[in-house]
Amino acid sequence: MPIVFNKNIDDQTMLSVWKIEESEEQLIAGLQLKQHELDFISSLSNGKRLLHWLSTRLLLRTMLQTTEYIDCRMDDHGKPYLVNIDYEISLSHSFDYAAVMISRNKKVGVDIELIKDKIHKIEQKFLSVEELEQNDLDRSTEGLYVCWCVKEAIYKWNGRKGLELKKDMYIESFPLQEEGELRAFVSLADERKELTAHYFKVEDSYMLGYVMA
Description:
The chain is of the alpha+beta class. The chain has seven helices and eleven strands. The longest helix has 18 residues, at 141-158. It has helices at 24-29, 35-43, 48-64, 123-126, 129-132, 141-158, 165-168, and strands spanning 3-10, 13-19, 72-74, 80-82, 88-94, 97-103, 108-114, 169-171, 179-187, 192-202, 206-212. The chain folds into two domains: 3-105, CATH 3.90.470.20; 111-212, CATH 3.90.470.20. It has a five-stranded antiparallel beta sheet with strand order 7-11-10-9-8. Strands 1-2-6-5 form a four-stranded antiparallel beta sheet, with helices on one face. A two-stranded antiparallel sheet has the order 3-4.
């Protein structure tokens, strides 16, 4: 399970991407799992869903560099959190890759996606009319995946149900690069917040977006 990307964003925040090459048995061997977790994974059908769950937990353990049990749970909104370690976390996975972002002092959100041409069929589901009317918004396949990953990362950063990618988020046009940043705005319950979002292309045609604040 080689780490293909690892970055200390600042002295409190880290992002890692791992290519999943192990079997379920190999991933389980690297984890400390309690009965409620064993019961959960036994409810998952064999395949990518199980590999994704296991790989994000193993990558999290690798990043935290601890031999102690890591109690990672989901709150009522589906946001992952650590019970016994003081870190904000965000998890993502797509096909053969897993991504984890952790921070001691900031909320974080990360999303990784396999780049496919079919995104053109659904661009109006996550981009508003105002965004689509920006003449210089890059609507190539990769450009659309930047928008999609960044909005998904913002959703995870917020960590609350009800936020809509099309209605509550706005991305300013940006020059598409292999790695870059852009300005995004999100309408929360009590404010409209500006965020600086980052993105980069991962090997094997994957796009990753992340935010922290």
